[in-house]
Amino acid sequence: MLGGGTAGYLAALALKRRFPGMEVTVVESSEIPIIGVGEATTTLMPPFLHGQLGVDGEELYREVRPTFKLGIRFEWGLPGGYFFEYPFGEADPVHASLYEEGLRYQSLTSALMEQDRAPLLRGPDGDVLSLLPRVKFAYHLNNAPFVAFLARLARARGIRHEDRTIQRVVPRGDGRGVERVETRGGGELRFDFYIDATGFRSLLIGEALGSPFQSYGSSLFCDRAAVAVVPQEPGRVRPYTTAETMDAGWCWRIPVDGEDHRGYVFSSSFLSDEQAVDELKAKNPGARDPWMVRFRSGRHRDFWVGNVASVGNAYGFVEPLESTALHMVITEIAHLLAVFEAMEQPGGASHLEPAVNRAIGDHWDDLRWFLSLHYRHNRRLDTPFWQAARAEVDTSGVAPLVERFKTQGPWSAAEDRGLGQRDPTFGWSGLMILLLGQKVPTCPFEGRQTREEWEERVGKLRQLQGRALPQKEAIDLLLSRPSLIQEFTGGAASWVQGQEERVDGQVKRRLGV
What we know:
Number of helices: 17
Helix content: 25-40%
Radius of gyration: 23 Å
Mean pLDDT: 94
Shape: globular
């Protein structure tokens, strides 16, 4: 494993867990700092950590103190103070768009988001009923303590660690993989298989093996992020990631325990670094020492070449409008595990290389088109950046779905088979929420529920909403009652231990292994 960070350690832990006899080594340099921003995840993360990697929930909460993420609040779409909720789990955005503004009661999760509540209910006698084993959620994670936690866990599980600075990567003579890695001071390292987790540098798959980079720049204009930590409102920990429209892009808010992490994602073609920092500070009083992260959106042609595969930013990157970074790391790890399992079979796994490369590439391309819709249809501001985005952003990969929506109206989940995204996390529900939430014009449509039936449903959600604990109170309660943590992270009846949000089985079926 060349490179540590979140992607490298998650991949190393997954390999060691699945293949206990395998010798796994993480090679990273203490001279190269990690990016260190707060990380927002999707519903793939809790089952991956607790179900697949066997991470103890109480230990994670004690050392990393994650907070619940129930979805994303988009300050997006229409001018003024309009926003819409993008909740995790099952939702009914179609009826919500018919009968209310902002999709606030499309699900219990969105109702909890609307009032900064968590899925723990206060009973009439003061007892607490936890819905965490049943309500899907993700984590907000403070990157530095999370990576440190993963590193300690890796050492405890027998994963070797080498603190080396890579000087040169020597490819095989035929260019089909890596022969050795030379490090500063004259040392060298040789492994049977290399995983490139070197981040944006992409030292193996990109630099050494020359896999071409395929840009998403015609769809995703942003190439910078000004990042800062800001003070958190006392007692308020939002149970969602915020995506706020800015003059030349957007700004995330990732609330961790005790502070909020803000990141202004912008296009350097429309705004200088200094102007971006000024805008970030003006809209976030108290922002501390902003720093700049430069990136390019796109992916390499190859995920796997010979004895080299890549994870995380070393392979591809899209801005985190939908918290896709660790989501795709988990997906890539599932493909890695399938490859290594196939290697144990007669005939090996080399025949899978084209299929794996195609599957990962197509998955990333789907994300490109999904994210492009956020830009093409956001009418909140009329700055030069947003004028260009609405006029020029390439959405061709998803244009037939948008045209169907405009001419035929929203369709049901049952009708969506074969129409929506390859990734169920951004499938029918995500597409409908995004189009309806941004008020993309469509033809008149009717629902299957009457307004009276909808209002009765909303009334029940309001009752649950009123009993739910504020997010900050819920986090403090969990830390004082670890049995509640174990109930949803380790309980056999919890969705976290189930198969629905695990992608490894889907990958094996797709690859036929």
